[in-house]
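Thread: quick sanity check before group meeting

JM: Hey all, I'm pulling together slides for Thursday and realized we never actually wrote out the predicted structure for the chain we discussed last week. Dropping the sequence here so it's in one place. If anyone has concerns about the input, flag it before I start.
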Amino acid sequence: FVTNVFTLKITNIIYGLLSLYLFFKIILKDSDIYTAYLGVGLYLTSFYFQALHLSLIAQPITVFLVLFCIFSFQNLNFENYKSYLYVILSSSLLLMNYIIGRYLFLVIITYFALNYFVDNKKQILNRYKLFKETFFKFIVLFFLIFIFLIIINPNNYLTIFTFEIFDPTHTRGERINLVQ
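JM (edit): ok, ran it. Output follows.
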């Protein structure tokens, strides 16, 4: 087994192909198959996919984790614990990513929570108890994600309960200080 450039790039190529598959499944969930093929084709021909998925940087993994998180939230079923586990796993992996993954997680969970409430508003608003149960399910999901993060890496405990989760400390030269 020899280390060469191809063996280093193969992980990004695999993540790129997996992200294409997830992108196809996400579009197919809300649209027809032709729209899904068109979307994947446009993504394949974009400069972002062609340049960054063949380089030795972390963007393909980030794209894959974002799409995996969207896919798992799209298929979330509160009665199925396997679905819960997929959401917790994908969200935890996305949160372990750098700052962009954390911000995108907030956008994803807010979007899907609001989307769930809008889709079921007649049922939820007519019964206050169902509203409390649904809100409680999202809060429990949020805390389970953080508990899973702490189990994976106990150092995340200090990061989660400080502002470093959204604005980590920078080394010298990474940030410009305007006030001296």
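AS: nice. Residues 6 and 54 are 9 Å apart (CA to CA). Residues 5-30 form the longest helix (26 residues).
JM: adding both to the slides.
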